[in-house]
Amino acid sequence: AQTVTQSQPEMSVQEAETVTLSCTYDTSESDYYLFWYKQPPSRQMILVIRQEAYKQQNATENRFSVNFQKAAKSFSLKISDSQLGDAAMYFCAYGALSGYALNFGKGTSLLVTP
Amino acid sequence: DAGVIQSPRHEVTEMGQEVTLRCKPISGHDYLFWYRQTMMRGLELLIYFNNNVPIDDSGMPEDRFSAKMPNASFSTLKIQPSEPRDSAVYFCASSRWGPGELFFGEGSRLTVL
Description:
The structure holds two protein chains of two kinds.
Chain A: E1 3-5, E2 10-14, E3 19-21, E4 24-26, E5 32-39, E6 46-52, E7 60-61, E8 64-69, E9 74-79, E10 88-96, E11 103-104, E12 108-113
Chain B: E1 5-7, E2 10-13, E3 19-24, E4 31-38, E5 42-50, E6 53-56, E7 65-71, E8 74-79, E9 88-95, E10 103-104, E11 108-112
């Protein structure tokens, strides 16, 4: 079974600074997708960024970027110029191309301080 | 286009009562998923459907849990009888294809007293 591990239960960053959230996963598949989801206090799960394993280039969405290390099975999320609205739970998720559902990590709670 | 719609948003019930959670997926999405979120266990997949057919229900914790998808625009998750340990947020999500991007509903927070 594929597992997703987020080793940082909580992280804190000052406004305008940069923070990196870690995620590792375990799989024997070669084709898969990785995702970062954000869950603010409103509870709504929102997709932040997606990475296809076959792409060597790291995905970027505005202030959000990933560092995808396929050999190391690592998928970290970097948030630049952090804003108060970035405060939320962040979940890393894995989906095998041969499968159907996403497996989620336990999440990292991000606190943004003024 | 409307997103995934879940109801009720909040449900408080007493132990032993039947609970029914409802979900309307995004039109055109072939996959529907039910997840449960708790502090201890995080997000757990309960069951998912492809074209209204249940594909994998191995995550359903007990026989007290059942899920149906009678048509492409409606699914239910039923707990009968409910127990306090069922208290959680239940999410419904849909996607165009299996491991693709999931679109989540706002979740149903269930409290069983």
